[in-house]
Amino acid sequence: MTASQQAGFGFFCQFSYRFFVLIILMLFLSGCAGRLNKASDFFHAGDPQRALSLLEEGDNLGKRNRLLFLLEKGLIFNQLGEYQQSVNQLLEAAKLIDQFEVVSLSEQAGSLITNEWMTRYQGESSERLWVHSYLMMNYLLLGQYDDALVEAKQSLSRLEKNPEALNADYFTRALIALCFANLAEDNDAYLVYRKLADDLPSPALVATDIVAHAERLGMVDEVEKYRPFLSQSFPEGESELVLFVANDRIPLKRPGNVILPPSFRFSFPYYSAEKASWPRINILPHSWSYRPLLSTDLGVVARQALAVRKARIIAKQSIRIATKEAISQSVGNKNDVAAEALVRVALFLLDEPDTRSWQTLPGRLTLVRIPLPAGRHRLQVRLSAYGEFDQVIDLPEVQLRRGQRKFYSVRF
């Protein structure tokens, strides 16, 4: 056997057969994370307070699900408008993610004969990015712009490390640029918008921002290059109301299985293929226009992030299959055919794919930027999706100075 197989075998041999059924039951019970799933159901049924209460009763969820506990609470606090509470949860989640660089060898060895539910959930690369996305939003909503810029830089670092997985998150990338622009970091804002222009279906979606920052930086050629893409002009120094609009829910992770003879089970997680709807947005009662929308279907990014991780999933699953085969044959050689068959069945049943995920995330995040003249404004936002649902939200009265930005968050 290889070193990895010997580690798995050594872990297995610590337990006698009489406890094997008990191990299976414990793993399935702990793996279900039923409290997290139930909290998600309450949240999506329109009862975030009940979801939060359920999670606050569940501080004993254990270290394997600790990250998910923090992520779900952080987003629910955001939905309830408790932005500082949301920050507290998500900062703790970010620290925990940083700690995952140190992997427990015994935890990984144990998972070679069981499944990934045995390990601590460490988050997909997309979820790790969205921790910082929500921290940026929280800080902007709190008016803590320096802290938002710190999270923007953290987000940019994650994007640069995982471009193949994360570049389709146009919302987060535009939010990063906005955090730079909000503190007059024109060069950094320009660089983010310029890269977005290359990756978006049309540079017209960010042409206004590129031209504005290029003009301030004295980049005449860039101004002339992107000026033809301007769909409309906005007066220099005009104030702005920025809305973070969330709708639908992110697809769930599903269990996938491929059965191979004689008793091999190749299990893997996947995201279902639902697409989040584009929100239709009207600003009432004055029919104010807004800049072109930058939006992200979170399901698309989540599927791509998981696809990029596929090679590691296949590699570990191949080692797991080989380890379980070695264990089964060893039991058969030392005992009898019946004992080998029993172990094969038990190991087959244990091979469940890890379908844990951040379930309270929306299906789509959209950045809505509404240029407004300085002064006092009371607006309504009418939101609809699929042509089946309308929601009119009365925004708090906003007082804007010339050139000032204010932020508001809605979810439907």
Rg over CA atoms, rounded to whole Å, is 25 Å
Estimate the global geometry from the Cα principal axes: elongated
Widest beta sheet: strand line-up: 5-6-1-11
Task: Specify the CATH architecture.
Answer: Alpha Horseshoe
Helix-strand pattern = HHHHHHHHHHHHHHEEEEEHHHEEEEEE
Name the average pLDDT.
85
Q: With helices defined by DSSP (H or I, 4 residues minimum), what is the helix count?
A: 17
Q: What portion of the residues fall into strands of 2 or more residues? A: 15-25%
Which stretches of 5+ consecutive residues score pLDDT under 50?
7-19, 28-32
Largest sheet: 4 strands, mixed
The CATH homologous superfamily is named Tetratricopeptide repeat domain
Q: Let me know the number of strands.
A: 11
Assigned CATH class? Mainly Alpha
Structural class: alpha+beta
What is the straight-line distance between the termini? 54 Å
What is the count of structural domains?
A: 1
Question: What fraction, in percent, of the residue positions are helical?
Answer: 40-55%
CATH T-level fold name:
Serine Threonine Protein Phosphatase 5, Tetratricopeptide repeat
Word description of this protein:
The chain is an alpha+beta fold and 412 residues long. The protein has one domain: Serine Threonine Protein Phosphatase 5, Tetratricopeptide repeat (Alpha Horseshoe), CATH 1.25.40. It has 17 helices and eleven strands. The protein has helices spanning 3-13, 20-31, 34-44, 48-56, 66-79, 83-99, 105-111, 125-142, 145-161, 163-166, 170-182, 186-199, 207-216, 220-226, 298-308, 310-334, 337-350; strands spanning 239-247, 253-260, 264-271, 280-284, 294-297, 364-372, 375-377, 380-385, 389-394, 398-400, 405-411. It has a four-stranded mixed beta sheet. Strands 4-8-9 form a three-stranded antiparallel beta sheet, with no helix packed on it. It has a two-stranded antiparallel ribbon with strand order 2-3. Strand 2 and strand 3 (264-271) form a beta hairpin. Helix 6 (83-99) runs antiparallel to helix 8, helix 13 runs antiparallel to helix 14 (220-226) and helix 16 runs antiparallel to helix 17. The chain is elongated. The chain starts with a helix and ends with a strand. Mean pLDDT is 85; it is low at 7-19 and 28-32.
